[in-house]
Automatic annotation (TrEMBL):
<feature type="binding site">
    <location>
        <position position="161"/>
    </location>
    <ligand>
        <name>Zn(2+)</name>
    </ligand>
</feature>
<keyword id="KW-0479">Metal-binding</keyword>
<feature type="binding site">
    <location>
        <position position="101"/>
    </location>
    <ligand>
        <name>Zn(2+)</name>
    </ligand>
</feature>
<keyword id="KW-0482">Metalloprotease</keyword>
<feature type="active site" description="Proton donor/acceptor">
    <location>
        <position position="158"/>
    </location>
</feature>
<protein>
    <recommendedName>
        <fullName>D-alanyl-D-alanine dipeptidase</fullName>
        <ecNumber>3.4.13.22</ecNumber>
    </recommendedName>
</protein>
<keyword id="KW-0645">Protease</keyword>
<dbReference type="GO" id="GO:0006508">
    <property type="term" value="P:proteolysis"/>
</dbReference>
<keyword id="KW-0862">Zinc</keyword>
<dbReference type="GO" id="GO:0008237">
    <property type="term" value="F:metallopeptidase activity"/>
</dbReference>
<dbReference type="GO" id="GO:0071555">
    <property type="term" value="P:cell wall organization"/>
</dbReference>
<dbReference type="Pfam" id="PF01427">
    <property type="entry name" value="Peptidase_M15"/>
</dbReference>
<comment type="similarity">
    <text>Belongs to the peptidase M15D family.</text>
</comment>
<feature type="binding site">
    <location>
        <position position="94"/>
    </location>
    <ligand>
        <name>Zn(2+)</name>
    </ligand>
</feature>
<keyword id="KW-0961">Cell wall biogenesis/degradation</keyword>
<dbReference type="InterPro" id="IPR009045">
    <property type="entry name" value="Zn_M74/Hedgehog-like"/>
</dbReference>
<keyword id="KW-0378">Hydrolase</keyword>
Length: 183
């Protein structure tokens, strides 16, 4: 089953695909093309999350979705911490097309404060971290509520990461095997 390309304006969200830019933890682009791809099951769940966010006057901003295994290796070499980067020998749920990294924006594109940036690996990134400002805690809870209601499961250590329940049952997918190539 081919992956679904997620692209505005057809899907009411914003893309800020960090691994196609130098604005990521490696300091250099990992993807050659800024494409947002997801397994059809994940694309349907993302569509539900988009609708729930829109009902609140908000938009989703996606940082990453499908991640080729070769990209996972590049991230692992840059930051080999299994609490934040899945060991590429076992595989990332991003490499299965069933995980997404994202945040919430206002309708005009202003990001909601989350108490830390995307890929800011450390204790402040955890969903339940009370060391971030109260408004950021509320925004994280709002994002989690929208995503869980849409069928996603949070990863406790990263406020931005969500995956489908049972994600490990989906196969790892090589770049270009289920859609356009990213690398």
């Amino acid at each position: 089953m081919p992956f679904v390309t997620i692209a505005p304006p057809a899907v009411g969200l914003d893309l800020d695909l960090r691994y196609a830019t130098p604005d990521n933890l490696t300091g250099s682009p990992i993807y050659a093309r800024p494409l947002c791809l997801l397994h059809p099951d994940a694309a349907a769940a993302l569509g539900r999350a988009v609708a729930l966010a829109a009902a609140q006057g908000l938009r989703l901003r996606v940082f990453d979705a499908y991640r080729p295994p070769a990209a996972q290796w590049r991230l692992w070499r840059a930051f080999p911490d299994p609490d934040f980067i899945a060991d590429p020998r076992t595989g990332s749920n991003h490499s299965r097309g069933v995980a997404v990294d994202l945040t919430l924006d206002t309708e005009d594109g202003t990001p909601l404060a989350m108490g830390g940036g995307f890929d800011a690996m450390g204790p402040l990134a955890a969903h339940g971290c009370t060391a971030v400002p109260v408004q950021a805690q509320r925004n994280r809870c709002l994002l989690a509520g929208l995503m869980v209601s849409a069928g996603w499961q949070p990863y406790d250590r990263e406020w931005w990461h969500y995956q489908l329940p049972g994600a490990a049952a989906y196969p790892l997918v090589e770049d270009g095997a289920m859609g356009p190539r990213l690398m």
